[in-house]
Amino acid sequence: MIKNESIQVLEKKFNENRLAHVFLIETNDKQSALKDVLEFCKLVNCPENYLSPCTKCNLCHLIENDSLPSLKIIYPDGQAIKKSQMEELKSDFASIPYLSKYNIYIIQDAEKFNASSANTMLKFIEEPEKNIIGFLITNNKENVINTIKSRCEIIKANYSEKVECFIDEKVQNLAEEYLYKLEVEKEELIVYNKDILDEKLEKEEYIQLFQTLLDFYLSLLNGKRKFVKLKDNLQLNQETILQRVYLVNEVIERLNYNVNMNLLLDYFVLSLED
């Protein structure tokens, strides 16, 4: 489900066949904006009548796991988005998608184009193909190169500030232990779920636990490591970390409903192995 009202408008534009070829999204929460854009990608490509979460088609599963060939998420390579990244994108999208309706690219930190990559990008968007949609995400549109910005439809997508919640020390310690089981030992996770977690926590504590996991994975995206115990034992690439972020967010959303905790915990650890 798309949460931000400004991005929800894209659904109406899609239904009315009024989608632009490139959107520039200015936001105060780039990860939440990315998640909403990915929901939109599911909506426009799903061969079924899309409802979140989609359980009918493999395509939405591929999007969720960043495995769909016609969906490219691009991050700066070091301090800048490089020309080679744009050339690779053009090459990848030179043909019509065969699994989905659209080729879709998402560029995070769009303010980090340099002159060379911006020129390559301009050539790509000045002669748009009907089956290509682009999303550029930034926290300040004024920092995006004007020649690119002027060719985009601009969306301002603000998210309410997250309220800091107190995490009980017991939950904090259990979260670190759980992460060690999940990412280092990777053994007997189903047993751990049933014998340890299910006996110790109330629903609100589960929410705190998974919020702590989410904070940990987000800290990895920023080049930090929250728990010392994991520092020298954890090797995850950016794609895998993003998959973890999406999965933990999904679990937190489901926790807001009356769910079977045993089934939800098992779903979580099984999804980690996919």
Question: How would you describe this structure to a colleague?
Answer:
It is a single chain. This protein is α/β, with parallel strands linked by helices and about 270 residues long. The chain has 2 domains: about 150 residues, 3-Layer(aba) Sandwich (Rossmann fold); about 100 residues. The protein has a 5-stranded parallel beta sheet with strand order 2-3-4-1-5, covered by helices on one side. Helix 8 runs antiparallel to helix 11. The model has no long low-confidence stretch (mean pLDDT about 80).
Descriptors for this entry?
274 residues, Rossmann fold, 5-stranded parallel beta sheet, 5 strands, 51% helix, globular
- Alpha carbon gyration radius: 20 Å
Overall CATH class of the largest domain: Alpha Beta
Q: Identify low-pLDDT runs.
A: none
Largest sheet: 5 strands, parallel
| Structural classification | alpha/beta
Overall geometric form: globular
Kindly state the mean pLDDT as a whole number?
82
Let me know the CATH homologous superfamily of the largest domain: P-loop containing nucleotide triphosphate hydrolases
* Helix/strand order: HEHHEHEHEHEHHHHH
Question: Ends: how far apart?
Answer: 23 Å
The gist of it:
This protein is an alpha/beta fold. 51% of the residues lie in helices and 10% in strands. The chain contains 11 helices and 5 strands.
